[in-house]
Amino acid sequence: MNLVMVAMWVLVGLLAGLLAEFVMKRGDHGLRGDIILGLVGSLVGGWIFWALGISPGPGMVAVAAVAFVGAAIPIVAQRKIWPTIA
């Protein structure tokens, strides 16, 4: 793991949270909540892949894909488990 990978995880997590606020309508808990979920999910997902020794491959696209999947899982789970009443 290096600083560039962690920076990519943070960037992709923030972007995934931001996009989720605008794309996913059901279960909206605000921009701050979505960004935090995206950031935490991205960091945890990237760390799990790194800890298991699964290398996403060379290149930033693979690292970004791992981070995006890690960010999307908690955002979707939050929408399914704790939806708001609209």
Q: How much strand?
A: under 5%
CA radius of gyration: 13 Å
Global geometry: elongated
* H and E order: HHH
Instruction: Give the low-confidence spans.
Output: none
Number of helices: 3
Helix content bin: over 70%
Oligomer: single chain
Distance between the termini: 42 Å
Main sheet makeup: none
What does this structure look like?
The structure is a single chain. The N and C termini lie far apart (42 Å). This protein has 86 residues and is mostly helical. Helices cover 74% and strands 0% of the residues. The model has no long low-confidence stretch (mean pLDDT 78). It has helices at residues 3-23, 31-51, 60-81.
Helix-strand layout with pairing:
Elements: H1 3-23, H2 31-51, H3 60-81
Annotation keywords:
single chain, 86 residues, mainly alpha, 74% helix, elongated
